[in-house]
């Protein structure tokens, strides 16, 4: 997570983060596109889910988010993800899935170590 914070702090210094309470997005532009700066070099399903979640949260408080733009400074690429009706439906499903896992009495089985490559939370799962 420290790497991600360092990438954000040095890549987009003119923008102000938006605090949504339990979530903090990197910045929101004047057209209501959520911008997230990522430390990886390419989009992942988790990055896309994060963008959908932020758009969902903004819609809940009355901000008409148009979608998410994921920035990858390492490769100087961006990935634009419009917030469609299907994306909104997926966000609701993702949240329900997370709440189900969080409410479970036991943790789910760990993924294989190679599946955790690049995850900021690897230490939580793999520290004995």
Automatic annotation (TrEMBL):
Residue ranges constituting the DUF83 domain according to the UniProt record: 1-126
Gene3D superfamilies named in the record: 3.90.320.10
Source domain of life: Bacteria
Pfam families: Cas_Cas4
Coiled-coil ranges (or none): none
InterPro entries: Dna2/Cas4_DUF83 (IPR022765), PDDEXK-like_dom_sf (IPR011604)
Protein name, UniProt field: DUF83 domain-containing protein
């Amino acid at each position: 997570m420290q790497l991600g914070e360092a990438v954000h702090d040095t890549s987009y210094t003119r923008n102000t983060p938006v605090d949504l309470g339990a979530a903090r997005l990197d910045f929101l532009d004047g057209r209501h596109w959520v911008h997230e700066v990522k430390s990886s070099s390419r989009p992942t399903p988790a990055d896309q889910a994060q963008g959908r979640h932020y758009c969902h949260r903004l819609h809940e408080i009355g901000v008409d988010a148009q979608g998410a733009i994921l920035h990858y400074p390492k490769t100087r690429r961006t990935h634009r993800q419009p917030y469609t009706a299907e994306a909104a439906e997926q966000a609701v499903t993702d949240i329900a899935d997370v709440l189900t896992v969080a409410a479970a009495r036991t943790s789910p089985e760990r993924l294989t170590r190679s599946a955790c490559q690049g995850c900021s939370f690897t230490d939580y799962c793999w520290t004995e």
